[in-house]
Amino acid sequence: MTTGRVLKWLGPGLMALALTACTQVAAPVQPVLKPLARPDVPIPAKAAPPVVAKPTSEASAQLRSYLNQVQGAQLSQGLLRRDGGGTDTPFTNTMLARNFEQVAFYNEYNSSFSGRGGPSPLRRWAAPVRMDVIFGAGVPPSQRSSDGTEVRNYATRLGQITGHPVTMSSNANFIVIIAGEDDRSEALAAAAARMPGISASSLAVLNNLRDDTYCVVAAYASGSGPDTYTAALAVIRAENPSLLRLSCIHEELAQGMGLANDSPGARPSIFNDDDEFALLTRHDELLLKMLYDPRLRTGMTADQARPTVQKIAIELTGGGPV
What span is annotated as the signal peptide, if there is one (predicted)? Predict the structure, then answer.
């Protein structure tokens, strides 16, 4: 996507972060309360207060205006396509295998975010992925409803594509934050409180985003395997107009599954900084299928995986152009 838009926090640096941030805190013992006498007349349940979005700041309003201009300019140039590719974007098994290697075996950024990342072993989830959404206080109810539906539908689609369990759950290990400038820090703190081993202070980098960073995903490997994801956190600016928000949902959640890099040669694909495609394409679905193919193992290098990757790519394309 656009330069600076997608900031991946992946690889060995995150492993150290997750381990050093892990703190065991004993849960307080709750007192046992005596039951109250049952009233003669049932007490009606209190209705939940309606969700009312807080007014936005000038900074948030200006950012929203800027991002609307960005989306308008991209659409006017024929970018942010939603057709998934077509006759103008054919690809072969050789291209698919090459693109998978570039996207799955490299980091987009180094551990200090000061430059491009280097080669990396294959990374993906072993445990089922359980997603949930945290909205900032300023996100209006209509947007919460539409964005929540998009995340739920896309989570189902990711599970179907990969064959790996991906569901929505309040006991989440993959949290999607949709929040604005005024409430992102509170949403990050709420996410940290729900994710063992991840402190609010460790997420500070996700709170300080450049204006041209529309969304970001961080994946964590804090278990016994340094290349096996155990948690992930995506942050999507609520100020993004609808198509950019949906594009962020598609890219960040897919990259949080293990496709960590972008490649200028990947087409038709959302794993490309050119913004040509807004939504997951047929090509990208095949990349996700390859990522979770049982013939590949977490921790494999590109050299180790290449013969198997080429074989899988031939199988998925039938050996000819797609």
Answer: 1-26
Tell me the CATH number for domain 6-15+60-317: 3.40.390.10
Tell me: pLDDT of 195 over 70. yes
105 neighbors 119 (Cβ within 8 angstroms)? yes
Calculate the CA dihedral of residues 200, 167, 106, 84 and round it to 10 degrees.
-120
Q: Count Cα atoms within 13 angstroms, Cβ side, for 251.
A: 33
Report CA-CA distances (Å) from 27 to 30, 169, 173, 197, 240.
9, 22, 20, 15, 39
Domain ranges of the chain: 6-15+60-317
What pLDDT is stored for residue 205 in this prediction? 86
Burial zone of 278 (CB within 10 Å; 0-12 exposed, 13-18 middle, 19+ buried): buried
Q: Which tens digits make up the pLDDT trace of 43-61?
A: 345 455 555 566 679 999 9
Measured distance CA(4)–CA(55) in Å, rounded:
28
DSSP assignment of 7-65, as one string?
EEE-SHHHHHHHHHH----PPPPPPPPPPPPPPSSPPPPPPPPPP-PPPPPHHHHHHHH
Beta carbons of 245 and 234 less than 8 angstroms apart? no
CA distance 184 to 235: 8
Nearest to 172, CA basis, from 264, 234, 111, 100: 234
In tens, the pLDDT along 213-234 reads 999 999 999 877 899 999 999 9
Cα–Cα distances in Å, from 13 out to 8, 111, 113, 226, 249? 11, 5, 11, 10, 24
pTM: 0.83
